[in-house]
Amino acid sequence: MSQEAVPEQEAAREQSAPEQGPPKGLLQQMDELMAALNADLTQLDADLQQSGPAAGTAPHTTPPAPRPPAGDEPTRF
Prior knowledge:
Layout: H1 5-16, H2 26-51
């Protein structure tokens, strides 16, 4: 990359970014993103709780164990 490209990229970046005061640190950005994600998940959970179980679905059950053969025949392995 040439040295001339760096000032041009910085100028383009400065023009595209609105003035918001000092830049935020990475930790602060992550905290804000996690808070927004948590709020979205909380809202999704509330929506799902209100809608109840999906129609046509049964609760998960374990199938019964196979029964041994009937009669006096010995079991063959």
